[in-house]
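Standup notes
- DV: blocked on the single-chain target, sequence here:
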Amino acid sequence: MFNEIMALVHDRSSEKRTALFRMVSDLFAEDAAVHSDRELVLFGDVLVKLLDQVAVDERARFSERVARITSTPRTVALKLADDEDHIAAPVLELSPVLTEADLVDVASRKGNGHRVAIARRSGIGEAVTDVLVDKGDGEVLTTVSANL
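- DV (later): unblocked, structure below
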């Protein structure tokens, strides 16, 4: 597999970038629980760069795949959380990697789609709730109030 990855690294076509992204994301996700800290940093560096080079549907699938993984590199979770609403939503709602400060930042800067996803999280803190209430629309407020 290493030779395949190296061959893909040198080809800049969108098809090859997508193939490279899939291979690297598969390598990460299949053994996420056993990667060393050093490997996780490397995966984070590579995946963050590749996320900018793949289509929206690839990013959305990846976000759904890694949303619950506790070892997802924080840089990757933050990159996904900052993406379009439907890409960010799984990570914003489910990722254990994102901190309360991360959620406050995203809720402050992004739109109501991001805020609704954050409002669906279990166990949102007071600081996050305050931003959601201050900046959110009716859907955000309804989602926050329904969150036990």
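- Follow-up: The longest helix spans residues 14-30.
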